From TrEMBL:
Xref: InterPro entries: CRAL-TRIO_dom, CRAL-TRIO_dom_sf, CRAL/TRIO_N_dom, CRAL/TRIO_N_dom_sf
Domain CRAL-TRIO, residue spans: 81-241
SUPFAM superfamilies associated with the record: CRAL/TRIO domain (SSF52087), CRAL/TRIO N-terminal domain (SSF46938)
Coiled-coil spans in chain: none
Name by which UniProt lists this protein: Phosphatidylinositol/phosphatidylcholine transfer protein
Superkingdom of the source species: Eukaryota
Length: 336
């Protein structure tokens, strides 16, 4: 990634000094930067090609989104009952498997086998934002303290095992989640490692890659097989996601026991996260009640829309080319 100039940081800092007079924005801004103001300004500047005025607008829009949607309180809103949360975890495969040798959290994501079919879209968005906020307010500050330096980004290992044409039905939800991340949590991922990539991914990647900004393309590394040997260069064996520990293991949420499989509700990360949220609800005197925490979905940037349409088109072509176009007639992108 490019280096942000000191001049650009100072320009954005001067613009953000005006936020001090607006208490709601000031409070939520502290939750965003967690004491690492310079690193936060750098992230938003990188997301806007180091243009201070554009980065300022992006950051203010982010803060307003947080205030309007009460994002600061989302870590006191547990998804209940527990069986419902377990269903979310079983169908939205994500977890913290460990840390890189540099201290960056390693998040594993089961892209291919996530079905997003056990709850409403609002629960999945709530869960995703809660993991983002827990990462930014708990995991990263803890890592920074442990390693004695600012750690404000993570690495992600994306498992494509099981990716198939039915992914078409998930495009809209994934676009919503991606837009939330791009607009409100920019540059939080240092590197994306793609593993267990089937042919269908390679076909989509070939047409999507030219649409990505250069800074994003540089972050993506497609590794051979399960990626074990390459990932061991940056992390210890214990921090490898379970689907990388042996060739052909796949990312099935049932392939390991709960303490080894970072997707499982029984994994320490999810246990700590869920208990933390329940504890925060007590501390903040928030009543625990059923029902999702609704968040307004941002309008996807034009680039996100173009990428989604390209992937959808490629999946259709892939289906037609394999003589199974009829099966796609029943695959619809739900109206959320």
């Amino acid at each position: 990634m490019g280096i942000v100039s000191r001049e650009a940081i100072n320009q954005l800092r001067a613009l953000m000094d005006q936020v001090a007079a607006e208490e709601p924005l000031q409070i939520t801004f502290k939750n965003v930067h967690q004491g690492y103001l310079t690193e936060t300004l750098e992230r938003f500047l990188k997301a806007r090609e180091c243009n201070a005025a554009k980065a300022h607008k992006m950051l203010i829009d982010c803060l307003n989104w947080r205030v309007q949607n009460e994002i600061d309180n989302i870590l006191s809103k547990p998804i209940v009952p527990t069986d419902l949360y377990r269903s979310v975890r079983d169908s939205q495969l994500i977890g913290l498997s460990g840390y890189s040798k540099e201290g960056l959290p390693v998040f594993a994501i089961g892209v291919g086998l996530s079905t997003f079919d056990k709850a409403s879209v609002h629960y999945y968005v709530q869960s995703h934002i809660q993991i983002n906020e827990y990462r930014d307010r708990v995991v990263l500050p803890s890592a920074s303290k442990k390693y004695g330096r600012p750690i404000t980004t993570c690495v992600k290992v994306l498992d494509m095992t099981g990716l198939k044409l039915s992914a078409l039905s998930q495009i809209k939800l994934l676009t919503i989640i991606s837009s939330i991340d791009d607009l409100n949590y920019p540059e939080k991922t240092n590197t994306y490692y793609i593993v267990n990539a089937p042919y269908i991914f390679s076909a989509c990647w070939k047409v999507v890659k030219p649409l990505l900004q250069e800074r994003t393309r540089r972050k993506v590394q497609v590794l051979p097989g399960c990626g074990r040997d390459e990932l061991l260069k940056i992390m210890d064996y214990a921090s490898l996601p379970h689907f990388c520990k042996r060739e052909g293991s796949g990312s099935s949420q049932h392939s390991q026991n709960g303490t080894e499989n970072c997707f499982s509700l029984g994994h320490p990360f999810h246990q700590h996260l869920y208990n933390y949220i329940k504890e925060q609800s007590v501390i903040r005197e928030q009543p625990i009640k059923q029902g999702s925490f609704h968040v307004s979905f941002p309008e996807p940037p034009e680039q996100e829309k173009e990428i989604a349409k390209t992937i959808e088109s490629e999946l259709h072509k892939f289906g037609n080319g394999n003589g199974i176009s009829g099966s796609l007639d029943n695959v619809k992108i739900s109206d959320y």
